[in-house]
Structure formats: structure tokens, C-alpha cells
Amino acid sequence: MYIQKRILTFSFFFVFALGLLPSQAAQPSVEALYQDARRQFYALFSSPSMMKERKKWKRVIKKFERITKTRPKSYRADDSLYTTGLLYERLYARFGIKSDKENALKSFLGVIRQYSKSTLVDDAQKHIGDIRFKERDIKKAVNAFKKASKNRKAVSGKVDKRSQKLARLTSVKRYSRDGYTRLVLHLSNRTAYRAHRLKNPDRVFIDFLDTGFSPSVPELIRYKNGMAKSLRVAKNNASVTRVVVDFAEQKAFHKVTALYNPYRVVIDIGRNNIDKIAKQSASRKVKKHASLTSYTPSQKRKSRIKTIVIDPGHGGRDPGAIGPSGIKEKEITLAIAKKLKKELKKKLNARVILTRSSDTFLELDERTVIANSFNADLFISIHVNASSNRRAHGIETYFLSPARSKDELETAARENMISAKNASEAENDLTYILSDLENTSKVNDSVQLASAVQRSTINGMRKSHSSIKDKGVKQAMFYVLWRATMPSILVETGFITNRTEEKRLKRRSYIKQMAKSIATGIVKYSRTYMVAQNR
């Protein structure tokens, strides 16, 4: 007993001498604190109900502030301070409380002054420019963006000898179907913008800070059909270029969003309320996905699934991934999609539409527009995976939500046709989440659909190929699923870069079995859907 006491006394003395009292020794690591803050961050932005409560925002902010205050020299400190600024900026936009704006500016300035070597300094400067532009302080806004540009040139050693403007509007692209139109304004660089809706006649204008426009962009574009009647471009003043979109229908609904990598502003215009359509999906409590919370339906569903849009990935000049023998992803996805359409027509009394039925090129924007224009009940995008690891194999099904792993991030980057190395993980996730907040009410249905399809596909394929690997249900920010107003998933049907799976995917019997298995999952989901809406 005496020896035990001496050991305990010595142990306590040793800990005390090192300055590691029990309360200190049990402190979590910086990474643990940061990951906990991130989980709370995504939980907040996955729940419209939580976002209505200011105290919920403050709780998340305190998580990041704790890191900055207690570990100011850690490798997560600059990121935490920057995220604090993002939260306060969004909080100000939502509630309009002046102190939130001041705290946002204070946080971004803190990144610039305290962490001058951080890669986030340029972004912090630009967010200051965003805030200043929205409060119409154009001089300070331009100054903030030019400081960011100066910093970038100093780091890269490159001097931009082109126009002294912050950005140029380089092109306008339009994707339109009956009842839904998407306009994409492509810019040479990121700049600040603000959008405002006007009536009599109905239109929306978007002001761009210190932006010129290329000679190839007409000052007036008239559209013969669709939800946009015309688009006008003009200088509002020396430092502002204004783009005006005239709506074809008075009661049209719209959303304006800036996206990165590359930088562009997307204008979605729908005959039906874009937000209300998304809220039609009923919700269930979802487990296993920590970034999700449960939702409550705001409207009743349709009586049954009436329309399904199937999207064969890639096509035309975009071959997708290419296998060792030269077979292209676009060929496999189209073959599966055609068989899937036949299977669904047999098993469900629903209209089934393919985004493409031949080897034609479709941009990602157009695929989503097709699904929304048909007011589809389900959207299924078919793909084939690829990896630098030739041994990687298996089937996985994705729904739209922030990526949690490197593999998920890389898969999304490949399908979005961007470089994962150049994409900012936080910026990428934030952009999609913050620009599509109302659509989170469809996420639970997408998870249920993904789970049903993944389970049925694995079970179906293992009947003749027992070695099929179940890679599970995953999540990532796929652009093709973004702003789809219905439950939507992306199925990676195997790895074309794996020789064994490539050989299988070239066989008609395997393609047919894959389509049957996916269809079975969709049918099972539809039965659950019917039960849920009839409760």
C-alpha cells in the first residue's frame, strides 16, 4: 500500500513538473478540435431549421474561435479564423446585424495581419471586397481586390499585362428547356457581385465590380424561348458593369449564385418555385452520415413517382475515363442507361427520360436543366470510376453533400472536370452548400435512394460475380447534382482502370445485369416512397 502511494505521488509530481496537470493532459489535439468544429459547421448548413436560430451560428463560431485563441500558432489557426469570418459574413447576410459585419471584417483582417504567409490571405482580401461592394463602398472594394491581386503576383512572380480591370465577362452560355432556363456568365477572374430583383417588368440585375466585357459578348442578346426573354450588358459607371436578365414570365422564380474553379455566376430561372420543388421530398432520420440532420417536409409529395431522368455520364467530345484496352466511359454509361430505361419501363409505370440517347456532348449544366424542366421525381446519373491505383475496384453510389475523404473529393473533381489539386476543399464545399441551402430538404430522400440502389446493385451483381466489392454509399459535391430539384444520385458502376472490371463492363450480359440491379433498387425505393407519402 505504501509503495502504491509513493508511485502515485511520484506520478503526480512528474506530471505537475512537466506542467501537464490532468486537465491539461486530457486536452484534445488541434486536429480533433478542428474536425469537431467542421462537423458542427456542416451540421449547421445541412439544417434550414438550425440556420434560423442565431444561437446555433454562435455555437459553431465559438468552436473555431477556441482554436484561434488557444492555439494561435497551430497549423489550423489561420483556417479557423478565416472560417470564423465566413460564418460572420453569412450571419450578417441572413440577419442584418451590424456587429456581425464588423466581426467578419475583423476576422478577415486578422488572417491578413496575423498570418501573412497563409494561402488564405488573398481569399480574406476578396471577402473584404465582397462586403464593401455590397455596402456600396466601391473604392474600398476595388482596393481590397487589388491588394489580393498584388499579393498573388508577388507570390507567383508573374505580372498580368492585360487589362487593369479586376475581371472580364468572357462569355454567356444558355441552357434552356420548357419551364427552366440556366444562364452562366463566365468571368476571367473572381470579383465581387450583387444581385437584385426588380418588377414591372420582371427582371434581375447583377452588378460586377470593376469588370469589363469581351468584344465577343454582345450588349443585347434576345432569346426566342425559355424563361429568359433577353440579356443586356452595359457599364453602370466607371467601376461597375451591369448585366440585366429580363424574365419571359412575371411569376418566374430565380436564384443567382457565384461558383468557383472556374469562376462564373449562374442564374437559374424556373416556372415553378425552385425552392418549393426541392422541399417536396419527405424526410426520414438518417444514420451513418454525421454531416446530416433530419428534416421535416414542408409539402406533400406527389402520389407516386411519375418521371425519372437517367443521365449517361460524358459523351461526344468528352470520353470520360478510358480503360487499359481503350474502351471509353461514355460508351459504358450509355449502354447501362439504355438498358436501365427498358428495365424501369417494365417495372414502374413511369415516364423515363435519357439526357442523351446517342454519343453526343452535353455540358453538366444542361443535364441538370433537363431534369428540372421535366419536373422529374428522380435523377440518376450513371458513371464509371477511375483511379491511379490499378487495383482499385468496386461499386459505390453518391449523393450530394460535402466530401469527407480524399477519395470522395478526387472522384467529384474528376466528374466535375476540375483539378482536385487546384480546388480549395473548403471553398468548393462552402460554395455549393451556401448557394443551395433550401435544397438540403431533399438530401434524406437522396440518401435513401442511394442506399437502396447500392444495396440492390451489390446483391444483384454478386449473384454471378461474388468478388464484387461494396464500396458503400458516399457523398461529394457533384456539379451535375447541384440544384437538381428532386432526389438525385450518381452511381459509379465499377473501375474502368481495373483490367478485371473493364473486361466485365465490356460484356453485354454484365451491362444488362447491372441495369437490372440498379432498377431493382429504384423500384424498392419507390415502394418506400409510396408508403412514406401515404402515412
Please, could you describe this protein's structure?
It is a single chain. By secondary structure, the chain is α/β, with parallel strands linked by helices. It folds into three domains: 29-156, Alpha Horseshoe (Serine Threonine Protein Phosphatase 5, Tetratricopeptide repeat); 167-275, Immunoglobulin-like (Sandwich), CATH 2.60.40; 302-533, Aminopeptidase, CATH 3.40.630. The chain contains 17 helices and 16 strands. It has a six-stranded mixed sheet with strand order 12-11-13-16-14-15, with helices on both faces. Strand 9 and strand 10 form a beta hairpin. The longest helix is centred in the C-terminal third of the chain and has 26 residues, at 508-533. The chain is globular and about 65 Å long. It starts with a helix and ends with a helix.
Structural class comes to alpha/beta
What's the architecture of the largest domain in CATH terms? 3-Layer(aba) Sandwich
Q: With helices defined by DSSP (H or I, 4 residues minimum), what is the helix count?
A: 17
Unreliable residue stretches: 1-25, 159-163, 277-300
Q: Say what the CATH topology of the largest domain is.
A: Aminopeptidase
Report the sheet-strand fraction: 15-25%
> Which descriptor suits the 3D outline?
globular
Give Rg in angstroms. 25 Å
Distance between the termini: 66 Å
- The tally of beta strands, per DSSP, is 16
**What's the name of the CATH homologous superfamily of the largest domain?**
Zn-dependent exopeptidases
Oligomer: single chain
